[in-house]
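Our preliminary data section would be incomplete without showing what the modeling component actually yields. Below, a chain of 240 amino acids is followed by its predicted structure, encoded as tokens that our downstream tools consume directly.
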Amino acid sequence: MQPLAPSPAPKRFLITNLKGGSGKTTLAQNLLVAAALAGHPTAGYDTDAQAQLAEWWQARPDEATPVGMYARPLKGMHEALAAAEIEGPEAVRAAAQAITDALTPDEPCEVLVIDTPPGIEAYPAAYKLLALAADIVVVPCQPNQKDRSSTEKLLDFLAPLRKPVVTVLSRVKPRVSDTATTRRRLAALGADVCPVEIPDLTEVHRAGERGLGVMEVTGLKSAEDMTAVWKYLSSRAGMA
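Predicted structure:
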């Protein structure tokens, strides 16, 4: 009997920012649903110790669009690498390979959405492995000064890795001047800014509380926005 061929690597979407509250998990939830509704076997990978993405998955109704879920805190990856350093270079390489290998699930998976915690700068080596394995890095950013500053720092960190990076304006309130300011400043940095914004609507959070994406609830205004964000990001990730 011939050994089974290894599973092909999925397209990996790394959802990340340095600070909390930027809308990472909300975006990850809805990208998972959008990808699954588009016909792709899809799974999430929760690296936040708070496990909010995994909790959302656990709350999904039985009749909801199927998505998979995996979890390993980024802090745990960092600790594994630190322990390996004591043993030497071979152990470090093995620990790094184990982290990367886990990003290719055994079950069929074409899209893997990786949610990250705030404070990723505390775990630079582990975070770098995730970023290098990603096909696209997605940076949600609220249109305010604190999120702009955090996003600019993250873009500087990611630049040497030469990975496709797209910023997505999230929790956007209507007719707020900071939205245009944020878009302009990110564009001035040469950032790829998604042309579709994620609105700050209660319906987005209520859908998430039920373990759903907005596309799974009839009549929600934000469903079209989330679908358009998915189409833009999947195109940037090289998906047909």
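Residues 17 and 92 are 26 Å apart (CA to CA). Residues 24-37 form the longest helix (14 residues). Preliminary results of this kind motivate Aim 1 of the renewal.
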